[in-house]
Amino acid sequence: MGIFQRFARIPLKSTYIWSLCRQYSTDLTAVDRALIQHRNPGAAPPRLPFSRVTQEDLAFFRTLLPGRTITDPDLLKSSNVDWLKTVEGNSEVLLRPKTTEEVSQILRYCNERNLAVCPQGGNTGLVGGSVPVFDEIILSTSLMKQVITFDNISGILTCQAGCVLENLSNYLEERDFIMPLDLGAKGSCHIGGNVSTNAGGLRLLRYGSLRGTVLGLEVVLADGRILNCLATLRKDNTGYDLKQLFIGSEGTLGVITAVSILCPRKPKAVNVAFLGCSSFQQLLETFQCCRGMLGEILSAFEFLDASCMSLLEKHLKLTNPITESPFYIVIETAGSNATHDEEKLHKFLEEVMTSSLVTDGTVATEATKIKALWSLRERVTEALTHEGYTYKYDISLPVEKIYDLVQDMRGHLGDMAKNVVGYGHVGDGNLHLNITSPSKDPALLAAIEPYVYEWTSKWKGSISAEHGLGLKKRNYIYYSKPSEAVALMGSIKAMLDPKGILNPYKTLPDNIH
Amino acid sequence: MGIFQRFARIPLKSTYIWSLCRQYSTDLTAVDRALIQHRNPGAAPPRLPFSRVTQEDLAFFRTLLPGRTITDPDLLKSSNVDWLKTVEGNSEVLLRPKTTEEVSQILRYCNERNLAVCPQGGNTGLVGGSVPVFDEIILSTSLMKQVITFDNISGILTCQAGCVLENLSNYLEERDFIMPLDLGAKGSCHIGGNVSTNAGGLRLLRYGSLRGTVLGLEVVLADGRILNCLATLRKDNTGYDLKQLFIGSEGTLGVITAVSILCPRKPKAVNVAFLGCSSFQQLLETFQCCRGMLGEILSAFEFLDASCMSLLEKHLKLTNPITESPFYIVIETAGSNATHDEEKLHKFLEEVMTSSLVTDGTVATEATKIKALWSLRERVTEALTHEGYTYKYDISLPVEKIYDLVQDMRGHLGDMAKNVVGYGHVGDGNLHLNITSPSKDPALLAAIEPYVYEWTSKWKGSISAEHGLGLKKRNYIYYSKPSEAVALMGSIKAMLDPKGILNPYKTLPDNIH
């Protein structure tokens, strides 16, 4: 308890803490744990000593962005609260720049004035990363929605950060291409936000992560400098790949203003199968069989459990198209030859049905039916919001372990939780564990955390596979990253944003800012 | 000329230079050009004031690495010179650690003693990045060749940095998997070197870059700290992705000691087609047709020109299997169903033959013949070494531009060059432009550079698509990266390696160290 007490006495924003941690390097795990546990780690920390917005500041912004400097509280309301309605800030200014130059001028001014800034895309994040914690100025990309170029030979798209993912998808489909990522929030999320959070989603299994498909970024740094790394080349090994710093750093190192991304050809044939399994073991065996038999045409392998299906039926009035089962799988194939793809899919289905790995199933090749089947997977998040309060966990684990966590959590929580459900991306070893309760419940939260993180850490998993850390998970980083790594992240933050004005209280733990 | 003269008077290793550059920020292009042009930018800079290895140092290394501290000049010779025999250092010590802990102790010692270190893998680099420039201690990964784990469900391999790529390929093939990268130097190159240089190679078109497939790294920092980011998860968004800093930074930010990498299943069917085209325009049309018709089974689309073929025939006695043509294409398909793949390939071949895009061709499905066809592409580099001295350029351009550069260069150089040949990765827009001469020829070099870089820069290409910058290309970085980006790279270097002991004189230009 000595270390614990030592930390309790020292203000959190102190480099002294970190040097203390380093001194106790033989006992870093205990230190990290103390840092994590000594108060509610998901809660907001104390406000840091940033300046407050003055009338002079507003006058500056109104001159720079006439009609696009929003201060009406009603208009600000939806930007102050996250999509899940679990985190709420009280920013009094929302800025809506249209150009990179405007973003640059805003940040240069804010940095000089020591005003904190919360960059915001479609505000669909799930970890409280996209809303202000206190009175940070909201810098919205909503008016930065121009496609800059699209090259239909290379498939390389360059666009402003505020383009809505679904709009980009529609734009590309007309040109016989698709975006390399797809996710449930596509109707609202911005590509800049997708890149800032290194969004994974439904196509990662096939097209890989944004770290491979994003070819270039334009970023405005905290002091207003514009970093133009907006290359449109598949390969470029000239020096360090700076854009990687901004992918997945949740707006804490710079504001992404434009993106170049490599887009695959639109597949000529798409099939979706919706299958039922009687155990998770059978689901895993189906996955193995699927990878072997569908190979290069497999574009998604997703799952949801029976509890998810009940919520879809109850709250969204969706219909289960097959016999009731403990587990459901969504398999998508995407290929260049419809006949070949259907033959592969049918052989696979024959194999898994005759071997009883799968108990029932249905297949769609027509767009409307494909969409209907996909919505059973995509709308689980939405169905959960009707249940009251949802505690959300986004965990990477070795694939054979992912459902053990759900079952273990059910046993651990017993009647305390209303629902404990699991769904997610089997192909990526990524579980979305969701626990609902009629309303916020500190006792339930205390039973879940740090239990869920300890469980994940024990199996060398990640406590955030794709959602990021944001506000809610920032202090849990040590469950997935060693102290040396977190300290180095702090050095990078200090180098790029010495005053810490960019999305404060997010991503990095409270002992590092 | 004012700026040019100003730089000529100031010692290159000076932060003052950079602050000067920043003052002249309205004229940065001219400044960058002056920095590049004021002397032979590929030549070695003056030795930096590192310590020299003493008898005490040797005694320390011999105690730490008994029998693995090499000082015999004969044994050191091959490690002091690059594979192309164009760059030679005069290191007097080669260290061969077996463990990460040993690497850590070496670097901690060298950092304290201010001894410079050149990390070395298989020493197959083409830009002088893997050999010492002066007397840097060579830190070889050649004894770090253990596979640590392989998970045959997820396909994730974890191994030490010194594993030879071909050995890993063989190891995986026995387990029904393959490495996601393949390159001509596979028999010698180390996976740690591949990752340090962000090697591209022959499979990038299909499996993407190492930035997506490398899941984790263990790295020893300049001061000996071990950074363990050796995750084996497909998705992990907990904080900044530090491993990206070390991918492609050519050993200047840390020494990679272990790698986790996602490996694809071994395809059940592989076909290779070797085709002839009568113009580069027809080759490009063949590529477009190929992408549409082969789609997801296309795993490589490579080319070589008639001059390359002549060199293969002349120096390596290889036989051209088809009618003589101005251009040759190697197409590889890899898929899960031999019948489907062959059907797709035959339809495609029928299409390109009947439309006269392709003039002649041959197809291989059997391993020995596949290997023979591939060697026509893979052994061009080797054939060139028999021509005398080779000036090598590794350029990314919009794909429709790549051969224009070869033709333009032929016209520009006229009789000065013995050969001007082009080959490379059409699918990635990556040209290998090679210019040969009986021996080193400063006049020829002056005609090539900066002409080739200006040409590339005009088309917003990369002056190093996959080879990196190393010693030879470091000062040309400004042709592909803006000054703000290079300055930020310098800050990252200063943060991670404040004494600059790691692979000095490489990657970053002389005004930044």
TrEMBL record, chains A, B:
<protein>
    <recommendedName>
        <fullName>D-2-hydroxyglutarate dehydrogenase, mitochondrial</fullName>
        <ecNumber>1.1.99.39</ecNumber>
    </recommendedName>
</protein>
<keyword id="KW-0285">Flavoprotein</keyword>
<keyword id="KW-0560">Oxidoreductase</keyword>
<dbReference type="InterPro" id="IPR016166">
    <property type="entry name" value="FAD-bd_PCMH"/>
</dbReference>
<dbReference type="Pfam" id="PF01565">
    <property type="entry name" value="FAD_binding_4"/>
</dbReference>
<dbReference type="InterPro" id="IPR016167">
    <property type="entry name" value="FAD-bd_PCMH_sub1"/>
</dbReference>
<keyword id="KW-0862">Zinc</keyword>
<dbReference type="InterPro" id="IPR004113">
    <property type="entry name" value="FAD-bd_oxidored_4_C"/>
</dbReference>
<keyword id="KW-0496">Mitochondrion</keyword>
<keyword id="KW-0274">FAD</keyword>
<dbReference type="GO" id="GO:0006108">
    <property type="term" value="P:malate metabolic process"/>
</dbReference>
<comment type="similarity">
    <text>Belongs to the FAD-binding oxidoreductase/transferase type 4 family.</text>
</comment>
<dbReference type="InterPro" id="IPR016169">
    <property type="entry name" value="FAD-bd_PCMH_sub2"/>
</dbReference>
<dbReference type="InterPro" id="IPR036318">
    <property type="entry name" value="FAD-bd_PCMH-like_sf"/>
</dbReference>
<dbReference type="GO" id="GO:0046872">
    <property type="term" value="F:metal ion binding"/>
</dbReference>
<dbReference type="GO" id="GO:0071949">
    <property type="term" value="F:FAD binding"/>
</dbReference>
<dbReference type="InterPro" id="IPR016171">
    <property type="entry name" value="Vanillyl_alc_oxidase_C-sub2"/>
</dbReference>
<dbReference type="InterPro" id="IPR051264">
    <property type="entry name" value="FAD-oxidored/transferase_4"/>
</dbReference>
<dbReference type="Pfam" id="PF02913">
    <property type="entry name" value="FAD-oxidase_C"/>
</dbReference>
<comment type="function">
    <text>Catalyzes the oxidation of D-2-hydroxyglutarate (D-2-HG) to alpha-ketoglutarate. Also catalyzes the oxidation of other D-2-hydroxyacids, such as D-malate (D-MAL) and D-lactate (D-LAC). Exhibits high activities towards D-2-HG and D-MAL but a very weak activity towards D-LAC.</text>
</comment>
<dbReference type="GO" id="GO:0005739">
    <property type="term" value="C:mitochondrion"/>
</dbReference>
<dbReference type="GO" id="GO:0051990">
    <property type="term" value="F:(R)-2-hydroxyglutarate dehydrogenase activity"/>
</dbReference>
<dbReference type="InterPro" id="IPR016164">
    <property type="entry name" value="FAD-linked_Oxase-like_C"/>
</dbReference>
<dbReference type="InterPro" id="IPR006094">
    <property type="entry name" value="Oxid_FAD_bind_N"/>
</dbReference>
<keyword id="KW-0809">Transit peptide</keyword>
<feature type="domain" description="FAD-binding PCMH-type">
    <location>
        <begin position="86"/>
        <end position="266"/>
    </location>
</feature>
<keyword id="KW-0479">Metal-binding</keyword>
